[in-house]
Design goal:
Blueprint lengths: L17 H14 L2 H15 L4 E6 L11 H9 L4 E6 H6 L2 H15 L5 H9 L21
Helix pairs in contact: 1-2, 5-6
Length: 146
Amino acid sequence: WGGHWIPGKLTVIGDKKGGSTRQKLKQLAKEESNEHMVSVFRDFQEIIGLPIRIINVFWDRDAVYRGSDRFIQTLKDGIPSVSSFDWDNGVYTCGDEASRRALLRNACDFLGVPCDSSVIDMWSSMASCKAATKHVSVSGQGSDSD
């Protein structure tokens, strides 16, 4: 998460393969049941000893991953301490600077981690609209080319 560490206290675990994790949990729900998937997720939460906060990353053209995602809602319904935050990658990569910085500050607040201006500056500087053109158009509207 940018190197924030509090000695003796786990703050944030990042899942670089969040899409794969999501698919595995969905497979559990399909092969077993939603209740089994929620139970496995609850067991994981008990092991790490933290409430789970899901950052639901989506592109502006990708309605499947928006806040109405039934998969995340099933987890939230089954485990009241699970919460989610919708991260619009179109805003992060191609949005105006004020919107990008607001998204970053809101994510920090959601995770409960301090983010001073140097952290916000660092993360904001990594955004690249050019690299995201297969997902969003420069104007921020979804691309139909894929």
